[in-house]
Amino acid sequence: MIKKKHKAAVIGSGNWGSVAAKLVASNTLNLDSFHDEVRMWVFEETLPNDPDLEHAAEDANMLVFVTPHQFIEGICKRLVGKIKGDVEAISLIKGMEVKTGGPCMISSLINKQLGVNCCVLMGANIGDEIAMEKFSEATIGYREDKEVAQRWVQIFGTPYFRVSAVSCIEGVELCGTLKNVVAIAAGFVDGLEMGNNAKAAIMRIGLNEMKAFSKLMFPSVCDNTFLESCGIADLIITCLGGSNRKVADAFARSGGKRSFHELETELLQGQKLQGVKTTGEVYEVLCQREWQQSFPLFQTVHVICTGHLPPSAITQQRLYEN
Amino acid sequence: MIKKKHKAAVIGSGNWGSVAAKLVASNTLNLDSFHDEVRMWVFEETLPNDPDLEHAAEDANMLVFVTPHQFIEGICKRLVGKIKGDVEAISLIKGMEVKTGGPCMISSLINKQLGVNCCVLMGANIGDEIAMEKFSEATIGYREDKEVAQRWVQIFGTPYFRVSAVSCIEGVELCGTLKNVVAIAAGFVDGLEMGNNAKAAIMRIGLNEMKAFSKLMFPSVCDNTFLESCGIADLIITCLGGSNRKVADAFARSGGKRSFHELETELLQGQKLQGVKTTGEVYEVLCQREWQQSFPLFQTVHVICTGHLPPSAITQQRLYEN
């Protein structure tokens, strides 16, 4: 009896896309239950009709999505009807879409548009370091099918890239999304030179709001998810070195006088900041559901980003009113 | 009717001792229910028989202890029979004593020796920054008496120094103690230039071991304590900038060839490192109770500190065997 081999494809772009493809390809080469060939479709904003997308996906049954989050909807639309019936997907994309009906996680969007089960992979993993095979961790979030999650662990994990799977997809995905809001707050603290005590306090309050927000959105979210790599570890990395922190630092140093858009252009060489967009989306959810009072940090970050309070408002009294 | 006024005294030394005295004195000056005078006894290793200790404590009913932890037992012995009957104590001291009968927290030691109720105050609070009135947080842990804890919150808290009280004294105190073991691990990662992914991973694993250890030691310990300032926030600060991290970094850079003792003398101007002592004490507890397998990080830090494994063993396979 010949056992069916799984075939993976990577729909992605950027540094993280290349690193993910390398991890997958090196594992499939060594594992009998996977095809050696891994096709990668590289997303380019300037080539929106590249026909290779369908070619990359057509005979794969394990699709890895790792694109900027604003393009995933268009990519899914192009894949409808072009993929196999037994496809499993995983999203490495951080962010969420807020529609009039409420927020929609990227994994749900993929699930709904393509009719496939979709896991997520998040965590404290700077691509450059993984490319150099430095020790790193990641968390896979899955809904129900543990066997599928374990197949993703097999395909991504290496001795230097340790992957754990937890049955808490929304918690894992929201960690990856919400940490960017906290990183903006941490950047304000840095820019105002408020010190390490203040920065640690803001990161702590941020983690608590991430947890509370996730649990209100999805009551099934587990407490322990926030102690996985996707939670506390990714938050630490993002608040210490990420681009959201960097631009927020510059914004605070300018006293809020230069816009995020202007600083982004100047500091990030065309890369778009995820955090400010997410901050606005989170604020929309807080307003839709009348949760503002319970999330003083998230709310304050938005109010500062939109210029209605100065950056120094980040450590205001209201943080302690709940 | 004249309401009884509380009177505070600080038994302490060092930077944190002075800062604590400043916080207490500025609050008691403004609060009607406290005496304006706050006596401080400054502990000096070279003047062990300074008679002012008894004078400082004699008419106080709120005693703040903030000394290096190896001296607290001797100080308590000197105070037996010299203090008032209605005294409440609070310990700002990090560390624990491991006796043949098992570990003893500093607050328990004060409680047993002096027969007084003893709270603890821990958190992400670098003394220099608080002295400059930069925004900081702290956590008070208390056993049962919430009213007493609130009195400590009153006496320490300011708009720039935010103090919360939680009914989980052992959890708060163990956070302050165990974070130093994790900081040594983080220092190894820095010294070996293993990158931010690895450092965030080690901090995350460390927090999980802190929580598991505390809950095994004291089943009443609350999960949420690790999300207070004493938990995650203090861990972040200690792993980024503290002296334990610094010396462990140098130890790893020397390939484990120079001793902690030697590096301590060279780098800390006579200050004694808490973390290595605590690492040994924690290891003793792990052995006494046969818990080694459940705490691979704590155990590995000890084995590296004592020269039985190289610093690079810090990210070994065993971290993931549980």
TrEMBL record, chains A, B:
Keywords: NAD, Oxidoreductase. Residues 43-146 form the Glycerol-3-phosphate dehydrogenase NAD-dependent N-terminal domain. One of its GO terms (cellular component) is cytosol. The active site is at K179 (proton acceptor). GO terms for molecular function: glycerol-3-phosphate dehydrogenase (NAD+) activity; NAD binding; protein homodimerization activity. It comes from the Eukaryota. GO terms for biological process: carbohydrate metabolic process; glycerol-3-phosphate catabolic process. Belongs to the NAD-dependent glycerol-3-phosphate dehydrogenase family. This is Glycerol-3-phosphate dehydrogenase [NAD(+)].
